Amino acid sequence: MIQYLTFLTRCFRLSFVGDWRYYLWMLFLSIVALLGLNAYCKQFVHGLATTGMTDQVSWGLYIANFTYLVGMAAAAVMLVIPVYIYRNRDLHNLVIFGELFAVAAIIMALLFVTVDLGRPERFHHLMLRFNFPISMLTWDVIVLNGYLLLNLHICGYLIYCAYCRRKPGKFFYYPFVFIAIAWAISIHTVTAFLYSGLGGRPFWNSAVIAPRFLASAFAAGPAFLILTLQVIRSTTDYTISDRALLTLRNIVTIAMTINMFLLGCEVFTEFYTDSAHVASAKYLFTGLGPHRGLVPWIWTAIGLNTVALLLLYLPVSRGLQFLNFACVMLIIGVWIEKGMGLIVPAFIPTPLGEIVEYIPTLNESLVSLGIWAFGLLVYTILVRVTVPVLFGRLSFDREYDPNALPEPLPH
């Protein structure tokens, strides 16, 4: 216990150590996070009236980000599967970074749910009315918190074993890895069922919602990891090969192809059948009369995703410059399509035929940016602590030495 507490203390101290780039990045994220906290304090005092949500559109930017981040967290499995099932050695040393990102993404997702609650101090009422197993919200609470605990255990155990200079025990590690694979798929499937199970919102009543969620998640998540791994490679001496990045590129390409195909199937079904429930889809893609708030956004998303997919299919994307460009477009495009393009249209028009458009307020946007900044702050600290431990520069018998030569760790 003393050794473990010493490990936590050393990791805490190490999180404050870095070069000027590290301090500048952490300062920027801290400022944005504090601005978001200040905006949330205003919301806490004045209520959800500080947001753009109304009685007609009761879910907005917060739930859009929540949906997107659940998928980003689930995408960690796209590193785990090639390594532990298909024995891909190129990605073996990168799994830990996917798991760490899953932890940060789930924390952000849970924070977005918290700020979406009108009276968060009454959260305990949700626990008193834990309507299991009928309520899909109850299932979502279980799978999200369970996935967070799984990844915390996997990451914490691997890092602590590296700190102690010992080989991880298979009994305490491998079973949880394979459970996490199934659990990662379940968190986004259950989140999709939250929407598709709401009969009063026909826009979501589609069997392809869950497959679309998974496909877009397995595209945007690895795309984000491609970018972050390059940052880690350029700011540390951790070895990340181009071959590993190109393996992730292949995963992104396949997943994005499936996502675009499913989107096309859904659009065809909505517009070709021209059913009575096509109004929400029309509002999203073409607008309803003068109400066209989301039309530029969804076509921007489709354009970004299409260009990104074409680049990924072309040999030019084997160069990191074009690959990074495609990943940035894909991340933004999926955020629009899967966030605002999925959540808001289901509320327009209302079951009574009212058309009330939704525009996020400045305060709402600041809260969202603050949560994103806090999540990236958490991820940065986790990576900052992990790399020296994996290199053997911080261990139970050695204080942190940035100039020490890397030592091989047990595999």
SSE blueprint and pairings:
Blueprint lengths: L1 H13 L5 H27 L14 H14 L2 H8 L10 H22 L7 H5 L7 H29 L9 H23 L12 H27 L6 H32 L5 H7 L9 H19 L6 H24 L18 H30 L20
Helix pairs in contact: 2-14, 3-5, 3-8, 3-9, 3-13, 4-8, 5-7, 5-14, 7-8, 8-9, 9-10, 9-13, 10-12, 12-13
Description:
Helix 5 (95-116) runs antiparallel to helix 7 (136-164) and helix 9 (209-235) packs antiparallel against helix 10. With 411 residues, the chain is mostly helical. It has one domain: Formate dehydrogenase/DMSO reductase domain (Formate dehydrogenase/DMSO reductase fold, Up-down Bundle), CATH 1.20.1630.10. The chain contains 14 helices and no strands. The mean pLDDT is 85. Helix content is 68%, strand content 0%.
Produce a short descriptive summary.
This protein is mainly alpha-helical and 411 residues long. 68% of the residues lie in helices and 0% in strands.
Share of β-strand residues: under 5%
Overall pLDDT metric:
85
CATH class value: Mainly Alpha
Count of DSSP strands: 0
CATH topology heading: Formate dehydrogenase/DMSO reductase fold
Give the CATH superfamily. Answer: Formate dehydrogenase/DMSO reductase domain
Low-confidence regions: none
Q: Quick one: biggest sheet?
A: none
- Give the tally of structural domains: 1
CATH architecture: Up-down Bundle
Spatial separation of the terminal alpha carbons: 24 Å
Structural class: mainly alpha
